[in-house]
Structure formats: structure tokens, C-alpha cells
Input
Amino acid sequence: MDDAIFMNSIYKGRYPTEEGLLPHGEPSREDTERAISAAKKLIEMLSSIQMTE
Output
């Protein structure tokens, strides 16, 4: 759940909707690595669900 909250905080209040625009400037290396890790975990979870169907 922490990953979902973190990912949501990155895009919260995103306006205007230009590609790559973040509300607080460029993400730190730590935030970038955390977001990538969370995305990989989600992809793995979805892949395992798809394989079981």
C-alpha cells in the first residue's frame, strides 16, 4: 500500500497535463528508483495473475 500512496503523490495535482510534468520538478534518484521498483512489482503481480487464468 505504501507504494501506491507514493506513486499517487508523484502525480497528485498534475496540471497542466504535459507529458513528463511533475508537480515538484524532477524526481530525485531515490524517488525514481522507488517508482521503478513499485512498477516492476506491479507488473510481476499482474503477469502471475494472467498466467493463472
Q: What stands out?
A: Residues 10 and 22 are 7 Å apart (CA to CA).
